[in-house]
What does this fold into?
Amino acid sequence: MLDTSRQAILSIYRNYLREVSRLPHIYLRQFYKIQGSDTFRALLRTKPDDMKHRKLKRILKGLRRLQLANSGNHIAFNRMLDVAYGRVGKLRYELLEPLLSRPGIADPPSIVVGTENRPLPVYSPELSKLLTSSCARKNPLRDRDFVCPSTLPERADPRSEDASVLGPLSKRREVNIHWRYFSAEWKKVLPPLQVSVEPPPSKEDSGHDASFPRPIGFEETNLLQQVLDLAGCTYISPPSAEREHNPGTFAIHSHSTPFDSKLPVRWLRRRYRELLGRLPILTYHQAGSRVQEYTVSLPKSALTGGKLQVSQLGLLDEEDKVWLRDTLSSK
It folds into this structure.
């Protein structure tokens, strides 16, 4: 039986903060410090013993995951990154929530006679692009699925044979099917951290003719660029000609690292490149018309779990071959 006294909880909280301080980047330390503070405060306010026991058990599971991540377990480390960057958990739904509505646009009229508060769901331009992109979900939808979901029976078409035999489908049931489909599909989307604008806005683009997307996610921060920088370059090392031309610069760059951890830098960069494979980039393309054009893509340095593309591979030089031989001989 777990000890749920105040002294035992504070002791676990100190162990939690100790593990958080070992995380390799300041954003991870700040995120889990704030999350841990909220979680432990809620635990101390919980009165029923059985509920307190369940919450403490969940906290200990998260603490064990942090310990495994700091010890170099790649599965636990990937899970820790997914929570911190909104791939799973509460932050994921907070990033997706603004995409579920279209501000400034009225809802379509209800198809149910005498009911005005139950119109068909509306897909925002950002959510539509994410739903139809293989970068944001495993099985992308087609454009026609928004109008005619795959779960909608053939009776919804009054010209179909089923409609002529069994009668037309109830409009109320049709609305319910649309909403259940909408609720199930948007939860399968990996949300972007922010919306990128292409071409980037300049200081002169302050007039009324310039169109900009609505801010979502971490719009006012450089979190996305931070992840790209932590993932590093896709090549094993700079070309030999560059090292020979600027040996001093490469020597300084090779010893500098953005991480504050005892874990290998190569190993950490690979974890962030795998994170990029689960981090779709939503780009807004400025146009003269009022039509909002979005595209979804993945960074070139992302690792998606499949076969590496040629653009992700670098050429081995003599230094890389020596390092590879030494690594293989030491095993």
About this structure: Residues 66 and 80 are 7 Å apart (CA to CA). Residues 6-84 form one domain. The radius of gyration is 25 Å. The beta strands are 195-198, 281-285, 293-297.
